[in-house]
Amino acid sequence: MTIHDISVPLQNGVHFWEGDPEPNISRIQDHERGDAWTTSHLSFAAHIGTHVDAPLHRVRGGKTIDSLDLRTLLGRAYVADLIDVNSEITANDLDARHIPSNVKRLLFKTRNGELWTRQGFQKDFVALSADGAQWVVERGIKLVGMDYLSADIFFADTAPAHDILLNANVVIVEGMMLQAVTAGWYTLICLPIKVAGADGAPARAILYTGSIEEER
Amino acid sequence: MTIHDISVPLQNGVHFWEGDPEPNISRIQDHERGDAWTTSHLSFAAHIGTHVDAPLHRVRGGKTIDSLDLRTLLGRAYVADLIDVNSEITANDLDARHIPSNVKRLLFKTRNGELWTRQGFQKDFVALSADGAQWVVERGIKLVGMDYLSADIFFADTAPAHDILLNANVVIVEGMMLQAVTAGWYTLICLPIKVAGADGAPARAILYTGSIEEER
Asked: Is residue A92 part of a domain?
C-alpha cells in the first residue's frame, strides 16, 4: 500500500483566503513552560488549508457540510494532469485529457502545486471556467478537487464555477497538494471535520493505492 | 456498504474538557444577512469532539499529530462491548471479553454513549485503568478508541492511562460516538486534520463494512 497525504499542513503563516481572518494556532499548555500537558488551540475560517465546500457556502438554504453523503467523499478518484493550463480550465482542456468516462471524483493537478512554496496567499492560481464546471456536472461527477484555494479564479467578479457546481450538489474540495502525485486512479479519502450546520470544514485528504480493508 | 459516522457534531454547546477554552463557531459571512457567501469561523482547543491525542500531548518531545503513521489510523478495528463497566476498564475486564488476539485497533463501547445526550461536560465517564492500558500495550495494539473525552477517569490526580499508552506510541482517539455500533469487526477511518507540530487535532472518524475501494 502507498499513501499520499495531500493535505496542507495547518500552521501560522499558512496561505489563507484574502479577507478571511488570519489563522491562529497557539498553545494553551506547554511542557516547555513546565506544564504537565501540551495542548493547542485552533482558530481559523472553516475554509482553511485542505477543506470541503458544502453547497451552503454559496447557495442559500443549500446542504451543510455535516449532511454531505460520506460515500461521495470516499472511493475511486482520478487525478488529471492539467499542468499546462495557465489560468482557467475549460471544457476544451478537459476534453483533450481523455479522462475516463466513469470518473465520479476528479482531481485537477495544475501548476498551482508550485504556489504553496511561496510566501503568503497567491492570486494567480488556476481554477475552473464556467464551461469547465458545466462539463463536470454533465459528466455526472460528484466531487472535484482543486489544488489551490478556490474553484474560481481570483479576479472573477462572480463565482460561476462555485455556482454551477454547488447548485448541482457537486462537492468541491479545495487546497489539495498534488505535486507528488502522478495522474491516474487512486482511492480517495477526504473527511471534513463534522461542523454542525456549516458551509465547509477543514479536511484530511489522502490518496492511496492498495487496500486498507485487508490490513489487520 | 454500511457507514457509521462515529464523530461528534461540533457546535456551540458541545461538551468540552473542563478548563479548556469554550468552543466558538460563528459566521463571518451569511446569506441570511445579505452576504453573497456563507462562511464560518472555528475556534476551539485541538482536543474538541472526536479527536486524536498524539504522544506530545503528554510526553515532552513526543511525536506530533502530523507525524503519526496514517496506517495506524486506517484499517481493521474491533469494537468491544464494555457497557457493564462502571468506572475503570481493567485488564480483568478486557480478559473477560475474549477480544480477538490479532486486534491492532480496539474501540471501547461503554455506558459513556449515554453521556452525550446530557447537557455540558460530564465527569462520571468510564475510562481505562493503568492495568487496562498496560494490557493494551502488551497486546501490541496500535490505536485505542474511547467513547468520551479522556482515556483516564476524571478524578485521577495523575493520568496513568495516557502515560502508558502515549509513551508506548499507542494512538488515543477520544470522543467516539459508539452508541449505534454493535461489537465486532469494521474498517476504521480516523483522520485528524493536519495541524503542524501539534499535540492533537479534531478528526472525522467512521466505521464501515463492505468496501470503498470497489466503489467507482
From this structure: yes
Question: Into how many domains does chain A fold?
Answer: 1
Integer angstrom CA distances of residue A120 from A17, A117, B84: 10, 9, 53
Q: Which of B58, B102, B195 sits opposite A42 (nearest CB)?
A: B195
In a domain? residue B16: no
Domain residue limits at A190: 45-209
A213 contacts on B by Cβ (under 8 Å):
75-76, 187, 211-213
pLDDT per residue as tens digits for the range B62-108: 999 999 999 999 999 999 999 999 999 999 999 999 999 999 999 99
What ipTM does the predicted assembly reach? 0.97
Is the whole model's pTM more than 0.95, yes or no? yes
Give the B window 22-61 contacts with A, CB below 8 Å: 25, 28, 31-32, 36-47, 49-50, 56-58, 60-61
Q: Is residue A158 part of a domain?
A: yes
Cβ pairs bridging A and B (under 8 Å): 201
Run of H or E residues at B189: strand B184-192
Residue with cell 476524571: B154
Grid cell of B64 as nine digits: 506530533
**CB neighbours of residue B43 within 10 Å:** 17
Report yes or no on B24 lying in a domain.
no
C-beta separation of B188 from B76 below 8 A = yes
B57 an active-site residue? yes
Contact between chains at B42 and A46 (C-beta distance less than 8 A) = yes
Q: What is the CATH number of the domain that holds B120?
A: 3.50.30.50
